[in-house]
């Protein structure tokens, strides 16, 4: 299992998880849900106490990935399997993205 914090304008909005079977889940942090001024990170994932589940990386996050020759270069330099979308997301969306959302790897709770 791999975990990532989803940051909106550098505030912790939620947790993205890749499970051992390759599926994904996303849930908003309780504090984010409790604050009515905090927006949803995406129109496709409105604020909800319910956890979102998918067999594949959610389209919102998939669309943050590099494509074509940019993807090839990143995968080669970072030694990432081109089919490891979560690994690619963790390496490319942690520092500088086009929007307000960043994705930063977190450690599993002990």
Model description:
The protein is α+β, with helices and mostly antiparallel strands and 110 residues long. It has one domain (2-105). The protein is 25% helix and 26% strand. It contains four helices and five strands. The chain has helices at residues 30-34, 59-62, 68-78, 85-92; strands at 2-8, 11-18, 24-28, 52-54, 101-106. Strands 4-3-2-1-5 form a five-stranded antiparallel sheet. The longest helix is centred in the middle third of the chain and has 11 residues, at 68-78. The mean pLDDT is 92.
What key attributes describe this structure?
25% helix, 110 residues, 5-stranded antiparallel beta sheet, alpha+beta, 4 helices, single chain
